[in-house]
Structure formats: C-alpha cells, structure tokens
Design brief:
449 residues; alpha+beta; 6-stranded mixed β-sheet; 12 helices
Length: 449
C-alpha cells in the first residue's frame, strides 16, 4: 500500500510505495488562498456562562503549533536559542544614576539582600524560563500574580501554561477573564476549569491598586498577560515564526526529512539490467527434468539469486561473470546472448538537502537569527555567508540588542510585583556573557543590559 503526503488543501504531493515514489508536478490553474488553519478566528466558545474567543478556528492553535514546532528541528532549536539569549545569565536589581557620553546607562547595583534573593531565586528563574517559552512559541504568556490571604502584598508568581488558557470576549474594549483548563481545545465541563481576572493591559498596576483599595484582592489571584503586539491581534498574538509557516517554509522543512527517510528506505537501487533470452531457460532448465512447475520455478529462482550475488556486493567488486551464446550459421547473429548493462541511478538526494537548507535559513530569518550563529550557513549559493568567528560574534550582539523590548515585556510582571510590595525606584537588568576574541586576553566578557 502506498504512503501519500498531502498538502493542506488535500492535494497529493508525494507518494511512496515499496518500489516507487511519485510526486505532483505543474501548477494549479489559479493560486489557492493562503492557509487559515492557524490564524486567529472569531469563533466563540461558552464556558461557565462566559463567552470566550476561540484561539484558532478549532480553538486548537497552541496544540497544533506545539506539534509543528516539535516536528521541525530548526524551528524548535531556533526558538530555544532565542529564549536562552534573551534571558542571558539572569537579572539583577539596580538604580540608574545617570548616562555616560555615549548614552549608556550608569548603574548602581543594589545590595538589599531581600531584593537580590528575590531576583536570583528559583521562583523568578522558573517564571522567566516558562514565560519566555510561551511568549516565543505562541506569541503570548500568562502570569499568575498571587497575593497573600489578606491581599496586602504579592507572595507568588507563576506562569500558567498558555496552551491551556483562553480569554473571554471583551466588554467595552476590556478583556476581563482568563479561563484555564487542561481540557482545551475541547470545551471543559463544569468543575474542570478555573477563571481568573485579567489585569488591564493599559495600566496593570493602577488596576491592581484599585482592586486593593476596594477590597477586591483578598482570596484571589490575577493574570498578567504578556503579548507581542506585532500581529495587531487583540486577543491572541501570532508568534514570530508564523510568517515562515504561512509562506510554506516550515512545511517544507518538515516534509524534506520525511521524504528522504522514505526515499532511503524504498528507493530503487538497481545497479544492473540483465537481459536474458527466453530460449535460455528451456535449455538450462528443461521442463521434462522437473516433476512440476513449482519445482522448476524454485530452481530458476535459486539460479537467479546466484547471478545477483555475483553481480552485487562489495565482495564481488570487479568480479567477472561468464555467459555463453551461439552464432547462427545462416545469418551470423548471436543467439541466446545475455546482455548486462550498468544502470545510472537518477536519484539525487543532494537536491533535496539544498531545499532543506534553504527552508532552514528562511525559518531562521523569520526568527531574526543569522543562520551562521547556529552553524546553519551554506558554503555557496543564495544563502551563503561568512561563518568566521567575527561574523558569529557580531550576529550574537545584534540579537542581544534586538531583544530589549522582549526583555522589558518579561520584566513588567516582576516590576509590578516589587512595586505592589512597596519597593520603589528599582530597575531590573539582565546580565550577558559576550564572546570576545583571544587578543583581548579573555574568551568571554560580562555585560549588563
């Protein structure tokens, strides 16, 4: 039975059998519409009397996106790389005392043990790791702000797995609730979901302080939503890699390894074409010498196995094969002559590897990553680049410079946490390890940003 790979609209692209493969060629008469399978839709879901906006047409965007990321190595590794360099070597508390002539901040590191322990503790480290994961993989992260029983200060910070969170439909332009359930994308029944108030995106501290002053914090926790606004979506932001998905590069990067795996397993690897005249079989295996057809067929098969063994395998390299034939005395032509011809293998896997490398580069471009940083640069052609150490170091520095906004988005809940607890005039900054050249006398340099 053949295995068939289909496009999103059901068109067969590649088919594999035990002895063949087929592919669809040509172009459709009209260009199909761009796939909407993962795009935000206006579908609604009702849970516990609340109307929610579905995340994707089947409310399953994060589930499908996560499976796609897991199946494409360069996308999975690229997203993890972004998360790691964004978080750097952690955060530290400081005060900005001024700026130098180049506009760089002059920082005074705080030595308050309580604040330092908070920034370097497991709760913050765990929050940053999980929030950055969801932020880059799915375009948003949901942070649970946990006050004490009296509602007078914040005591906990936890990242909700954003795969299991959905937002209610906005009322007067304000999204009020975040519904969390491990049942998504299925609609959860009563008792299998939790509802949290969603802090106002415009001014979450004012929203939280207003709730404290009106006594609406006691016994509750709240969700702070971190979203990348680039997609202009009001509810669920599109992740940075989504453009490469819509362009088809993510699918190409996923299909090429599947194609190569099937091709290596099932490709036709005939080396020789052996032409044997019909008359040979009757002379070599006379029917009268066998008790039945099955016995004669078995003898022929054993003979052909020996011929194949003589032609194939490393042990038989350059080994001759002897055949005999007659010359017809009347016309001088050879009779019962074997013809053995070497076959040219038309299968060229290198073409597919070039396509795969191009897809990998396009995915990394969508992530704003220089492929050379991950060792994905190609030695020649359209996607070639300098893979020297200087190029890699400069590309990494560009990544660090570009992640400022993402870092601020991740720091906002932490600053709200400290501000709500009365910690004033404190800034949070990231520590980075920067690669340097050997002529500086060190392999790495610590930088604060």
């Amino acid at each position: 039975m053949s295995d068939v790979l289909y496009s999103k609209d059901g068109t067969p692209l590649l088919a594999f059998g035990t002895r063949f493969y087929a592919e669809t060629k040509g172009a459709p008469a009209s260009r199909p519409a761009v796939s909407k399978q993962l795009e935000k839709q206006d579908d609604k879901v009702t849970v516990g009397g609340e109307t929610l906006v579905a995340w994707g047409p089947n409310n399953d965007f994060p589930t499908r996106a996560n499976e796609l990321i897991r199946s494409v190595g360069v996308l999975n590794t690229g997203l993890k790389f972004i998360r790691n360099f964004t978080l750097g070597q952690g955060i530290f508390p400081c005060r900005v005392t001024g700026y130098d002539d180049q506009g760089n901040e002059q920082l005074q590191v705080l030595d308050d043990p309580k604040i330092v322990n908070f920034c370097q503790g497991r709760m913050v480290r765990r929050y940053l790791e999980k929030a950055a994961r969801d932020y880059f993989k799915f375009g948003k992260a949901d942070v649970q702000m946990i006050p004490n029983e009296a509602g007078t200060e914040m005591v906990g910070l936890s990242t909700i797995n954003t795969m299991y969170s959905r937002y209610t439909e906005a009322k007067s332009g304000i999204i009020e609730k975040c519904i969390v359930s491990g049942r998504w994308p299925d609609t959860p029944p009563e008792g299998e979901f939790e509802s949290y108030d969603l802090l106002d995106e415009y001014d979450p501290f004012f929203d939280l302080e207003s709730r404290r002053l009106t006594g609406k914090i006691r016994g509750k926790s709240f969700v702070y939503s971190i979203r990348d606004s680039w997609s202009n979506n009001d509810y669920y932001s599109e992740p940075i890699w989504f453009a490469a998905y819509l362009a088809g590069w993510v699918e190409v990067a996923r299909l090429v390894p599947a194609f190569l795996k099937k091709a290596f397993k099932n490709q036709i690897t005939w080396k020789w074409h052996v032409q044997i005249p019909y008359a040979f079989w009757e002379r070599k295996f006379p029917s009268a010498e066998y008790r039945d057809i099955a016995a004669r067929q078995k003898a022929i098969e054993e003979y052909m196995d020996k011929v194949e063994e003589n032609l194939c395998g490393t042990d038989n390299a350059d080994k001759p094969i002897f055949t005999f034939f007659e010359i017809n005395p009347q016309n001088g032509k050879a009779e019962e002559q074997w013809i053995i011809t070497a076959l040219d293998n038309k299968y060229k896997e290198n073409d597919k590897l070039i396509t795969s490398a191009a897809a990998n580069s396009e995915i990394l471009f969508s992530l704003m990553l220089n492929p050379n940083v991950l060792g994905a640069g190609m030695p020649g052609g359209t996607y070639s680049g300098n893979q020297g150490g200087s190029n890699i170091r400069e590309a990494f520095l560009v990544n660090i410079a570009n992640c400022w906004l993402d870092r601020q988005n991740l720091l906002d809940p932490l600053e709200l946490f400290l501000q709500f607890n009365g910690v004033k005039d404190v800034q949070l900054r990231f520590r980075n390890t920067i690669l340097t050249t050997l002529d500086t006398g060190a392999g790495t340099t610590k930088k604060l940003s």
